[in-house]
Amino acid sequence: MARYVGAVDQGTTSSRFIIFDERGRIVGMDQKEHEQIYPKPGWVEHDPMEIWNNTQDVIRGALAKSGIKGSELSSIGITNQRETTVVWDRFTGKPYYNAIVWQCTRTHEICKQLIADGGQDRFRAVTGLPVATYFSGPKMRWILDNVPEARAAAGKGNALFGTIETWIIWWLTGGPKGGAHVTDVTNASRTMLMDLKTLAWDEEILRIMDIPLQGLPRIVPSSDSDTWGPTSEDGPIGARVPVCGAVGDQQAALVGQTCFAPGEAKNTYGTGCFLLMHTGHEPIQSKHGL
Question: Most buried among 29, 123, 259, 283, by the most CB within 10 A?
Answer without folding.
Answer: 123
